[in-house]
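Worked example

This section walks through a single chain of length 582. The input is the sequence exactly as stored; nothing has been trimmed or padded.
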Amino acid sequence: MRRRARAWLVLLGVCCCAAASERAPRCVQRGDCRSHDWRVGARADNLGEHTVLLAVNQRTQRLHDLAAQLSSSPESSHAHPLAAERWGRSDHFLTLNEVRALTADLDAEQAAFQWLNANGFRSITHSVLGFVQATHSVAAVERLFRTELYEFTSLEAHASIQRGFAYTMPLALAPYVEFVAGIVNFPQTRRTALVLPAEPRGHTDPLLLQSVYKITDHVVAHPDATQSVFEALKQSFSPDDLNQFLATHNMSAQTVAEVIGPNDPSICEVEPNYCVEANLDVQYMMGICEANTTFWSIPVTVTGDIFLSWVLDVGAKEHPPLVHSISYGGPEGEFSKMTIRRVDTELAKLAVRGVTVVVASGDDGVAGYAARADRRFCGFSPSYPAQLPHVISVGATMGPERATSEIACTSDAGGIITTGGGFSEVFPLPRWQETPVLQYLRKAPRLPPLSSFNPKGRAYPDIALLGHNYDVVIGGVTYPVSGTSASAPVFAAMVTLINGHRMNEGRPPLGWLTPRLYHAAIAHSGGPFRDVTRGRNNCCAGEPGAAVCCEDGFTAVVGWDPVTGWGSVDYAALRDALLAVD
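Given that input, the structure is written out below as tokens.
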């Protein structure tokens, strides 16, 4: 007999001249950042070492167009030759070497190498994706980049890093390098918290998901249809918990094929919060789709942004997993715009290689995590990386676990979390989103003032699935877990299943299918989606009556909306639709 814990785990060359500078977010100096708790200490030791990561310029003029063409259909008058030549073939997508040939700026790379060598940098390493990492003394880094480095510590991450408040790009590097990571970027450390105990009403498990979404297959049809979960913030998964979960639901035992990065299964029995995210991701990705699965964990002390570090690791592999699920995020405004844009460029490179990336839309409505404890943070805070154009952003619904109709998952309706959604302040509205988003902005009830958010930005989420009361085994105990962190790996697993069917027929994987989803919904009056028309995402996560509810939020309507996107998915219809296209 299984035990059920009564607690809610929520996922939540040196030159005197200078070029452009980049500054850390203002919250770093104030010490009130929402995404991390790094606190400044003493100046870094001049004799110590410091590593920087140079983001070398890329030739991306046709990359984004090619990604869209390879993921939908070539436009006859503007199609890239590679898209037209390979359409529908098993080698439909590009190889790593072909992506490098398409995007690398060899002159810029050579200039960066020459500058680093001329200025005495050591341990210089080069990524095929256009990044150069190098190490020098703290004193030299401070002099060359006109910065001051300090020791920063994080109590939540139990770690320390060296960072500064600003740097200036040397004039000799400015024409060749977009930005320098390792000086003003601060890795995310905030993890979602344990919410007050409550009696769960209904529960979600693999059998319910299969029934609600008509998932009739479970084992992937082709061995090369692979998948992976992204993890960070010292999250670990337990193989023992995985097999207890599978056995509980009458599934055969499975093993994670590859573990990349840190993982400590022993912590799951000591502190469930260190395993809640990772165990949820692994158990439901593998519970929905039995396939070759990778656990990909990024240390908190990476030189750059954790998502940048991850996408560079994935992109450097000759044969990366084809589907990835990310259940993490932070406020878009607390990350460098240059870094965010480059992460999306690297995702576009993965897109032209046939890789799909699925991201959870967030658990605190439009305002984000900080408003959960402080109403002063009410407002609009887009979630990164859910707002990136080259991902599928997945929100959360509720209802079927209680034997009621499917509605948006919101805390004021008893959902514990509120599905995230909104509009990016960095990326413009993509062409494939224009029709449904503009329609929403024209007809939406209780629409906040257009001046309070960016109505011309990339809108999210794209779709939504159940995200309430998932049974997750942690340290041998079953907990009810809620979050878009649950819906993201479930949809990612669906994509892997469909990839398996396509590849079994000798056809290419789906790759970046976000434009296809919009095309299917627009062309076929909703297509394989089930419209979710009830809910408003103005509240944060929390118990009913205790959760912070802000004045502004978006309201679900007929058609697409920034609450649940196109709604939930009929897997069988989606599979058939995506098997019917080249």
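What to look for: The longest helix spans residues 484-504.
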